[in-house]
Automatic annotation (TrEMBL):
Composition bias type Basic and acidic residues, residue spans: 143-156
Region (Disordered): 1-34, 123-199
Ranges of biased composition (kind: Polar residues): 23-34
Any coiled-coil regions, as ranges: 69-103
Protein name: Scaffolding protein
Compositional bias ranges of the Acidic residues kind: 1-13
Keywords: Coiled coil
């Protein structure tokens, strides 16, 4: 243990009390001075420090390792979040694309079979056969005159009249002295000042 512990001149016996077991490992010398005590403590501290030599290096390396693991973990988490977002975006775009393709198929079949555009939104089904069957069912339920927008019918329709509307006239009821005096709304409006002010 220490120089004091290894002194062979010491005649202190071990716990068993057998003087034959007085080996350097089993002997003890009492410390009688402060100087001897300080030396013994210094030797003991040196032995303990020797046990932990390089501990600071190991501690620094452990901290670096933990830091790298944390960065690695955060990188993995970032990549995982990016992958999940990409999968959600892909699913959303796939859904939009399938809806657009379905709507295009519905419009094509509706135009082919002559379904009025007002009823296109009511068509059900996902496959072309289902869509076609639903459109045919809708057409069967319609009166025969409404099934197609014939270009010939458009020729028979008259455009709105470009003739001016009849003028409104105002007369006072029961006043026969103003017989023949008629005032139109246009005449009244002509007399009003423009710009919103009273004039």
């Amino acid at each position: 243990m220490s120089e004091l512990d290894n002194n062979p001149d010491d005649d202190v016996t071990n716990e068993g009390g057998d003087p034959a077991d007085n080996t350097p490992e089993n002997t003890f010398k009492a410390i009688t001075s402060q100087d001897d005590f300080d030396k013994a403590v210094a030797r003991r501290v040196a032995r303990e420090r020797k046990k932990y030599e390089g501990f600071e290096d190991f501690k620094a390396k452990a901290e670096q390792f933990e830091k790298l693991e944390a960065e690695k973990g955060s990188d993995i988490e970032k990549l995982t979040r990016r992958a999940e977002k990409a999968e959600r975006d892909l699913a959303s775009l796939t859904e939009k694309l399938s809806k657009a393709e379905r709507n295009e198929t519905v419009r094509d079949i509706a135009d082919e079979l002559g379904l009025p555009k007002k009823l296109v939104k009511r068509v059900q089904g996902d496959t072309e056969e289902d869509i076609r069957a639903d459109i045919e069912d809708l057409l069967e339920g319609l009166p025969k005159g409404e099934t197609k927008d014939d270009p010939e019918d458009k020729g028979n329709k008259k455009p709105p009249s470009q003739a001016p509307k009849a003028r409104m006239t105002f007369t006072a009821p029961g006043d026969e002295s103003d017989q023949g005096l008629e005032v139109s709304a246009d005449d009244i409006l002509k007399d009003l000042p423009r710009g919103g002010g009273v004039g």
